[in-house]
Amino acid sequence: MASNNPLDSTIEALRSQISACEAQLQALKLQLAEAEARANSTGPSLLSTQYDQDMTNGVPNAWQTDSLSVLGQTNNESNPPSQALDQSPQKWPLTNDEYKRYGRQLIMPEIGLRGQLRLRAASILIIGVGGLGCPAAAYLAGAGVGKIGLVDGDIVEVSNLHRQILHSTATLGMLKVDSAVSYLKALNPGVEYVAYRERLTPESAIETFQSYDLVLDCTDTPASRYLISDACVLLGKPLVSASALRTEGQLMVLNQPARPPGDASGGPCYRCVFPKPPPAASVVSCGEGGILGPVVGVMGVLQALEAIKLVAGRTGTESVEPNGGQESQTNPDPPSLLLFSAYGSPQFRSIRLRSRKPKCAACSTHATVTPEALASGSLDYVQFCGFIGPVDALLPSERLTAYELAADLANTDMHEATARRVGTARPVIVDVREKVQFDLCSLQGSTNVPFSEISTGGESEEWLAKLRSVSPEQPILVVCRLGNDSQVAVKKMKEAGLHGDGKRWVGDLRGGLRAWRENVDPEFPDY
Amino acid sequence: MAEDASGTDGLQVTVEFTGGLEMLFSNRRKHQITLPVRDENDAAANIAYLVRYLCQNVMRDHRKELFVLDDTVRPGILVLINDGDWELEGGEEYEIQPNDNILFVSTLHGG
Ligand SMILES: [Zn+2]
């Protein structure tokens, strides 16, 4: 059954797109039928709803009407019920569709009519429409938040789909915000959606945040996290911040209560908790480290939950007022950090956090982050957080290109030009990706020495013994995913003396297995 | 293993790593450690000493810079003492008590 024919996968993709469209069409037809049925029966059903509340003669009027109609009589011709309705079209604070749609949360004391009206009056800005932003937006739209803003400049890629639940195979290549809005409109057309089709910048942050009550940080870089927190402090907006990687997630409600900078009774900001950014080398992205869909999903759902709690308010706590002010009652929840670990026991852990830092650069009386500095672009968040360019640790003579390697592997001996540099013996190919990645796909005949073992090991380590057993004439070629770790590994191997004082060539594949795929073997898996 | 965790042999403490830090510590999240009661200068063992001790005795990964910078935990790591922010407990100066749980959390950025 299995086939590598690329046409087969195209056919498969088209089939699944068609069935997705058909399912959507079917759902639309159902909605249309329901809407038509409702349109035909609007009068009577509205009447009976109203009559349940109206008991002029000791029994609900609807019952009277029913029994009277059975008796073939009319009650009071001069005052027909429909006329009474027309006189008070705004009798209920919510529309009938809203009563029905939000009924399951309306009957809970935590929400109730008051909470629902607050949700409807609220506006929430979601920055990042990825693994966190998608579930957060879905639940907030479902709950009936009045206005939802979405900020993202990225497009939908197929590797997003295992976790970014608003996007689909049919929306590949679309801007994430547009893909999300089309999903959310189908979910709840009663919400106003605002799409910001570009990455948030320091220059645009203040203006974008201004018209929202609350902000959700669903982004994935330290630079954006500092920027969002700073803008929230400057504008007095509470911030629900979450992040996830591999099997773990973290959640904090920051700047809550959102008091002005210098007011120590306000909640801590991101800079209070992390005054200095982490070294760029320690920052791992989902693309590098991996992410389990439900893990980031849990964190996004928790963000929506915290947002609903903040907006709808709870008795005896401080809540976000739609007009931007705050309703001050008893103490709000003390600041905390929630840790989630999918494979940990317990899975959830709540940590008591510090309050505002007296010397915080953003929220203290010593603040250096100002609206002017932000708007002028003089705060360079990318510079502040640092970045690591591609590793450039080896000399050109220590590196092979994918072309050179391909030519060498095609022959039993090394290709002449390369041989002068590397030696004539066939190289041993050492793949330094972690074992789980090596098991996914690897070059034929290559051997696996995970980078983590090389970083850990001392002189007596197994990996060294393994490589020392290789015949001393054989060159060692190190490969990895992108060609960065391989350079570090070559350095380590030379430090350990594997190059035999220059008798043996030890080098790497420039650009790693990505270059191999792009230049030599397009069938080599891209994960 | 001793019943009396404050015995002269040392302080029994539970040290945990999350947020990827466990990868620097033999891929183990939870370590039971017997920490000397007094540090190199005969002062009571505090968090700063624990961090040095972990680097020298527990961490096998060479990439120390992913855990410490300028003799303290690097930026982006929160230290939590018995489920509370170390800032609430005196930071590095906090003197370790028997059976303390010290959690090192690296902040995550993915989303
Ligand atoms: Zn602050």
TrEMBL record, chain A:
One of its GO terms (biological process) is Mo-molybdopterin cofactor biosynthetic process. Residues 41-90, 316-331 have a biased composition (Polar residues). Keywords: ATP-binding, Coiled coil, Cytoplasm, Metal-binding, Molybdenum cofactor biosynthesis, Multifunctional enzyme, Nucleotide-binding, Nucleotidyltransferase, Transferase, tRNA processing, Ubl conjugation pathway, Zinc. GO terms for cellular component: cytosol. Residues 41-94, 316-336 are annotated as: Disordered. It comes from the Eukaryota. Its cofactor is Zn(2+). It catalyses: [molybdopterin-synthase sulfur-carrier protein]-C-terminal Gly-Gly + ATP + H(+) = [molybdopterin-synthase sulfur-carrier protein]-C-terminal Gly-Gly-AMP + diphosphate; [molybdopterin-synthase sulfur-carrier protein]-C-terminal Gly-Gly-AMP + S-sulfanyl-L-cysteinyl-[cysteine desulfurase] + AH2 = [molybdopterin-synthase sulfur-carrier protein]-C-terminal-Gly-aminoethanethioate + L-cysteinyl-[cysteine desulfurase] + A + AMP + 2 H(+). It is an enzyme of class 2 (transferase). GO terms for molecular function: ATP binding; identical protein binding; metal ion binding; molybdopterin-synthase adenylyltransferase activity; molybdopterin-synthase sulfurtransferase activity; thiosulfate-cyanide sulfurtransferase activity; URM1 activating enzyme activity. SMART domains: RHOD. Plays a central role in 2-thiolation of mcm(5)S(2)U at tRNA wobble positions of cytosolic tRNA(Lys), tRNA(Glu) and tRNA(Gln). Also essential during biosynthesis of the molybdenum cofactor. Acts by mediating the C-terminal thiocarboxylation of sulfur carriers urm1 and mocs2a. Its N-terminus first activates urm1 and mocs2a as acyl-adenylates (-COAMP), then the persulfide sulfur on the catalytic cysteine is transferred to urm1 and mocs2a to form thiocarboxylation (-COSH) of their C-terminus. Plays a central role in 2-thiolation of mcm(5)S(2)U at tRNA wobble positions of cytosolic tRNA(Lys), tRNA(Glu) and tRNA(Gln). Also essential during biosynthesis of the molybdenum cofactor. Acts by mediating the C-terminal thiocarboxylation of sulfur carriers urm1 and MOCS2A. Its N-terminus first activates urm1 and MOCS2A as acyl-adenylates (-COAMP), then the persulfide sulfur on the catalytic cysteine is transferred to urm1 and MOCS2A to form thiocarboxylation (-COSH) of their C-terminus. This is Adenylyltransferase and sulfurtransferase uba4.
TrEMBL record, chain B:
Coiled coil: none annotated. C-terminal thiocarboxylation occurs in 2 steps, it is first acyl-adenylated (-COAMP) via the hesA/moeB/thiF part of UBA4, then thiocarboxylated (-COSH) via the rhodanese domain of UBA4. Pathway: tRNA modification; 5-methoxycarbonylmethyl-2-thiouridine-tRNA biosynthesis. There is a cross-link at G111 (Glycyl lysine isopeptide (Gly-Lys) (interchain with K-? in acceptor proteins)). Its main location: cytoplasm. It is found in: Cytoplasm. The modification 1-thioglycine is found at G111. It comes from the Eukaryota. GO terms for cellular component: cytosol. Keywords: Cytoplasm, Isopeptide bond, tRNA processing, Ubl conjugation pathway. One of its GO terms (biological process) is protein urmylation. Transmembrane segments: none annotated. Belongs to the URM1 family. Acts as a sulfur carrier required for 2-thiolation of mcm(5)S(2)U at tRNA wobble positions of cytosolic tRNA(Lys), tRNA(Glu) and tRNA(Gln). Serves as sulfur donor in tRNA 2-thiolation reaction by being thiocarboxylated (-COSH) at its C-terminus by the MOCS3 homolog UBA4. The sulfur is then transferred to tRNA to form 2-thiolation of mcm(5)S(2)U. Prior mcm(5) tRNA modification by the elongator complex is required for 2-thiolation. Also acts as a ubiquitin-like protein (UBL) that is covalently conjugated via an isopeptide bond to lysine residues of target proteins such as AHP1. This is Ubiquitin-related modifier 1. It comes from Coniosporium apollinis (strain CBS 100218) (Rock-inhabiting black yeast). The gene is URM1.
